[in-house]
């Protein structure tokens, strides 16, 4: 049956691939964007997840169009990379507020409807950086590591209502962000990856749709690395 799916940050890169994968399955898909550009067939919901009122309005719009959210994919995120001693309070706060607190907001709001339905899937898009760390990304790594604790706590809180909470941790992915790297930088990255290449956004989406599907009904509190072996499960 067609489900109500919400993907935050679904207008480009990994989020767009995830939204398109659910659309291909016949699901009713809504995506949050700040400036538009949702995939064809998806409901384009303008929302800044750092604004609590905007999050509430976005869910009201999705629920009116598609019904209560049954699958939430919390993907929206930002980076403000710099070394620790150069990192400003704003650099820290912006990343934490978007990646971690914004995800808390959408997960809390989605959970209300899921509890009433006694079913639901919460899927958080983290990063291999949140597990391994990365110089120059203290803020980003902290925010992505925080999603693991959030998901596992929610798995314990909500599991009795048949709501699962899981994390997908991508490694390096072919997106606009990696396309700007030089050939030398890309070669050095690929040398660290046992499979010797980047992931495609579709490979991340495949892990997400699996977690949302019937085959993963007994999987909760898990971290699924899709990183070509870079993190070796850590």
UniProtKB/TrEMBL annotation:
Pathway(s) per entry: Lipid metabolism; fatty acid biosynthesis
Keyword Iron-sulfur: no
Catalytic EC class: oxidoreductase
EC number of the protein: 1.1.1.100
Annotated active site: 140 (proton acceptor)
Binding-site positions, NADP(+): 9-12, 75, 140-144
One Gene Ontology MF term: NAD binding
Boundaries of every Ketoreductase domain copy: 3-176
Protein name (database record): 3-oxoacyl-[acyl-carrier-protein] reductase
Species the sequence originates in: Nocardioides guangzhouensis
Gene: fabG
């Amino acid at each position: 049956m067609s489900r109500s799916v919400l993907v935050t940050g679904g207008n480009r890169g990994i989020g767009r691939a995830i939204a398109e994968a659910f659309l291909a399955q016949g699901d009713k898909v809504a995506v949050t964007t700040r400036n538009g550009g949702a995939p064809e067939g998806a409901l384009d919901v303008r929302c800044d997840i750092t604004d609590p009122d905007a999050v509430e309005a976005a869910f009201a719009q999705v629920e009116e169009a598609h019904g209560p959210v049954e699958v939430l994919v919390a993907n929206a995120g930002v980076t403000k990379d710099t070394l620790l001693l150069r990192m400003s309070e704003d650099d820290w706060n912006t990343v934490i507020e978007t990646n971690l607190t914004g995800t808390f907001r959408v997960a809390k709001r989605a959970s209300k409807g899921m509890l009433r339905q006694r079913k639901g899937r919460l899927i958080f898009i983290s990063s291999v950086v949140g597990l391994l760390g990365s110089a120059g990304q203290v803020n980003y790594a902290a925010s992505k590591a925080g999603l693991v604790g959030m998901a596992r706590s929610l798995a314990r809180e909500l599991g009795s209502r048949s709501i699962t909470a899981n994390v997908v941790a991508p490694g390096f992915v072919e997106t606009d962000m990696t396309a700007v790297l030089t050939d030398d930088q890309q070669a050095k990255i690929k040398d660290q990856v046992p499979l010797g290449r980047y992931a495609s956004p579709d490979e991340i989406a495949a892990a997400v749709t699996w977690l949302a599907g019937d085959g993963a009904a007994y999987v909760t509190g898990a971290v699924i690395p899709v990183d070509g072996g870079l993190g070796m499960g850590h």
